[in-house]
Amino acid sequence: MLDGRKILVSLVFAAMAAVFAQSATNASGEAYFRANVKPVLENYCYNCHGPSKQKAGLRFDQGKSAFTGATPAVTPGDVEKSLMLSVISYEGRVKMPPKRRLDDEQIATLRKWIEDGAWWPKETP
After folding, report:
1. Where are the chain's structural domains?
2. What is the DSSP string of 1-22?
3. pLDDT at 26
4. Neighbours of 120 (CB within 10 A)
5. Which helix (H) or strand (E) covers residue 30, if one does?
6. Among positive and negative, which fits the CA dihedral 6, 7, 8, 10?
7. For residues 53 and 71, what is the distance between their CA atoms, to the nearest angstrom?
8. What pLDDT is attached to residue 108?
9. C-alpha atoms less than 13 angstroms from C-alpha of 76 in its C-beta half-sphere
10. Has this prediction a pTM greater than 0.85?
11. CB 71 within 8 A of CB 92
12. What phi-psi label fits residue 14: left (phi over 0), alpha (psi between -120 and 50 degrees) or beta?
């Protein structure tokens, strides 16, 4: 009976550790998004893909638009499937932002964000 309780206690602690680890990941994802990603989106994407204008029906002020659709702009954790990365890297026919390529640091910021799961704030209806 004592061994069963030890196993149960171990499982409970393992579950608690997983919850705390996920919470820490979310907190670091949020901090990275707010400090690094959001400023790039606001300064270089919102003019055409924000609250006032939504070219191609895409918005970067709302996650729902960026993460959904036939070809999502952002596929969390998968830079190869994230159209955003090829477009901002000027790799294909479509190049964004159209007037000037983002600098390498800004592209690296968005790449890391996508690789790390593309944390996005919860949206309110």
Report:
1. 32-115
2. -HHHHHHHHHHHHHHHHHHHHH
3. 58
4. 19
5. helix 2-32
6. positive
7. 20
8. 98
9. 11
10. no
11. no
12. alpha
